[in-house]
């Protein structure tokens, strides 16, 4: 067996389309298609989640704007950034970021 006939796995024809793995990734590691690979049902679910996230974030920002700084745990500016970044920030604000006001008891 000669050294020149040994295969290193890169013997594919350059004119061929790259094959994709189970997860849709090409052998080079990049995924092709992005949102185009989603089914219609997955796109609808993603759109619904996005709409719910935007609505909840808007309500959270409104509450944060109206609430006095003394009634918020931590700096309000930090909460604004975290709320707009992801859903985790919104959930954290509603669970931990607001102080209980004495006059509400």
Summarize the structure.
With 105 residues, this protein is an all-alpha fold.
Low-confidence stretches: none
Question: What is the end-to-end distance?
Answer: 86 Å
Note the total helix count: 3
Helix content: 40-55%
Q: Looking at the structure, what is the overall shape?
A: elongated
Radius of gyration: 25 Å
Succession of helices and strands: HHH
Strand content: under 5%
Topology:
Layout: H1 40-66, H2 76-85, H3 87-97
Helix pairs in contact: 1-2, 1-3, 2-3
Give an overview of the whole structure.
This protein has 105 residues and is mainly α. It has a domain at 39-105. The chain has three helices and no strands. It has helices at 40-66, 76-85, 87-97. The longest helix has 27 residues, at 40-66. The model has no long low-confidence stretch (mean pLDDT 79).
Keywords:
105 residues; mainly alpha; single chain; 3 helices
């Amino acid at each position: 067996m000669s050294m020149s006939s040994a295969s290193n796995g890169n013997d594919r024809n350059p004119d061929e389309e790259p094959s994709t793995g189970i997860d849709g990734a090409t052998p080079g590691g990049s995924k092709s298609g992005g949102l185009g690979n989603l089914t219609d049902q997955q796109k609808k679910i993603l759109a619904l989640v996005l709409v719910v996230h935007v609505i909840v974030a808007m309500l959270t920002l409104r509450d944060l704007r109206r609430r006095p700084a003394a009634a918020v745990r931590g700096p309000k500016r930090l909460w604004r950034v975290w709320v707009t970044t992801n859903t985790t920030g919104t959930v954290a604000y509603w669970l931990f970021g607001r102080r209980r006001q004495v006059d509400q008891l």
